[in-house]
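Format notes (please read before filing issues)

Several people have asked whether sequences and C-alpha cells are stored in separate files. They are not. Every record keeps both together, in the order shown below: the sequence lines, then the C-alpha cell lines. Line labels are part of the format and must not be stripped during preprocessing.
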Amino acid sequence: MSVNYDLYETPNPDKSGEELPLHARVVLKGSYTAEEFVEQVTAFQHMPHAQVVGVIEAISKELRHLLLKGFSVELGDIGYFTLSLSVNKEVTDSKDLRSPSVSLKDINLRINRQFKKDIETELVLQRYHSPFRVKNLLVEEKCLQRLNKFLEKNPCINRQDYAQLVGKTKTQALQDINAFIERGILKKYGSGRSVVYIKMK
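Then the structure lines:
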C-alpha cells in the first residue's frame, strides 16, 4: 500500500510573476469518521467495539481536563498536546494587557520523534495526478453537463464527489454548487458532514 502525492505550483506572495519551485502534497484517498475509525480498530486490533468507544471517550475527557489545568499531555507514542495562546491587540508593555485580551489560539500536537521515524521508515510514495491541480478550470456549463450526467446514474452528489467530477478544489466546488442552488438546479439536503445535493425536478 502506498501514499499518493502530486506536485503543485507554489503561490508567489509578491506577485512578481516569477515561478517558484513546485511543492509536494499528499493526495488523500478519503477520510475516516470517528465511528469508522472505531470500526477499524475493532476489526484489526481484535478489541470489543464498546471497549474501544469507551477508551476513546475516556482519553478525550481526560485530555481536555488536563489541558484546561495547564498541563502538557503525552498521548502514548504519538506525541504531546499543548495549548497555544494569542493576544488580540498589539502591546509593548505587559501592563497594557488585560486577561480578556488573551485567548486560545490552538491546540498543538508535537509528534514524537520515534513515531515520525516509524512512519518515515515504512512510507511508500507514489506519484499520482490529482484533478485539483488543473490550471484551466471547466466553465460552468461544462461542469453542469458533467453534473447532470452524474445525477442520471446517482440519486445525489456531495461536495467532494463534485470536486473530483469537474477537477476543482472543494472551495471552488462549493461556489459552483451554491450557484446551481440559486439557479434552482440543485437542492441541499441534510446537515453537517451528511450534506448532499439532489437535482430539482
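For reference, the curators noted about this record: The chain is about 40% helix and 20% strand. The two ends are 43 Å apart (CA to CA).
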